[in-house]
Amino acid sequence: MSMSGVIVRRLAVIGVGLIGGSLARALRRAGVVGEIVGVDLDRDNLVRAHEFGVVDCGAETLAAGVAGADLVFLSVPVCAIPAVVRDLIPHLAPGAIVTDGGSVKGEVVAACEPLMPPGTHFVGGHPIAGTEHSGVEASFATLYEGKRCIVTPTPRTDVTALGTVVRLWEAAGSEVVLMDAEKHDRLVAAISHLPHMVAYALVNAVEGYDRFEEGILRYSAGGFRDFTRIASSDPAMWRDIALMNREGVIEMMDHFAAYFATLRSLVAAGDADGLERFFRESKESRDAIL
Length: 290
Ligand SMILES: NC(=O)C1=CN([C@@H]2O[C@H](COP(=O)(O)OP(=O)(O)OC[C@H]3O[C@@H](n4cnc5c(N)ncnc54)[C@H](O)[C@@H]3O)[C@@H](O)[C@H]2O)C=CC1
Ligand SMILES: O=C(O)C(=O)Cc1ccc(O)cc1
Hints:
The protein has about 290 residues and is an alpha/beta fold. It is built from eleven helices and eight strands.
């Protein structure tokens, strides 16, 4: 490999699942990384990551994984990120950049940035790309192509470290958007976290509906399956997102409940015009994003 386009000589990926595995694959394909080291609590997942060639080697410990790395990418459930950063800091190389792909940014950045020793840097990030599958076997090199990645610098963020993180996501095929972490959390509460909450609740509600004393989900057709695909996502990941973006998620759940109540009133009143208007407005907004 020519070293001319290399952005990161040694990349450490902590948590080599869908998100970490896909970034490793994308960056390797783009020829912008030298060596990729993986660390994962799940030994079998790490062995598979090595077998698939997603990482060049699996490290037994966080210390060995981050030693000599110029960039560390954290792709573990969001509540684990601050503790992992605290644990890896003593082993970081001078000048190292630590960045993440977690779905919540406010608390992650607020917890991690102040921990960084002088000369090392934390930059928060979140690719707006994923699937309902997890583990390294679900990862693929094109996951980030044509997708946005939100990077959340603060007034304290080192501009060179920020530039490196931006170039990495661009090398993976993403369009990078810089955004304040608090705004990020409200935005993803609306476009990602609320839909997941609604999908999980919908599946449980229908499964828990016992009027017919038999499981009725097996009768479900395309619409139900399309709408609830994301309820197959990893429960531990979504537990952490709901815990960490509590304010944003609650605000959006309340906002949604008001719209749901409006719709219920229209149904209860038999308001034909109101119902059609409600559905037309929604269809126009939805068609516009296709
Ligand atoms: N799944 C998705 O569609 C998206 C997920 N994210 C975020 O990316 C992060 C990772 O998610 P996925 O890759 O989907 O999950 P995943 O379950 O596919 O991968 C996470 C990996 O981290 C490992 N792990 C967990 N705790 C660890 C620890 N303390 N130390 C080392 N390894 C540990 C797990 O064994 C697992 O292999 C999460 O923060 C999530 O919010 C961001 C965008 C999309
Ligand atoms: O599967 C899907 O469609 C998703 O919405 C995936 C997803 C999940 C979490 C994120 O923070 C970003 C993207």
